[in-house]
Amino acid sequence: MELIVLGAGPAYTDRPGASGAAYLLRSGGTSILLDLGQGSFTRLAAELEPSRLDGVLISHLHPDHFVDLVPLRHYLRFEFTPVRRVRVLGPAGLADRLDALNGNEGFTAASLDCEAFDGGPVPLGDLLVRPTLVTHTDESYGFRVEGPDGGPGLVYSGDCGRAADLAGVIQPGDVLLAEVSFGPGPVPEGALHLDGPAVGDLAAGSRAGRVLLTHLQMGYDEAATIESVRRRFDGPVTLVEPGERAEI
Question: Residues with Cβ < 8 Å from 183, sequence gap 6 or more?
Answer without folding.
Answer: 195, 196, 216, 217, 220, 221, 224, 225, 228
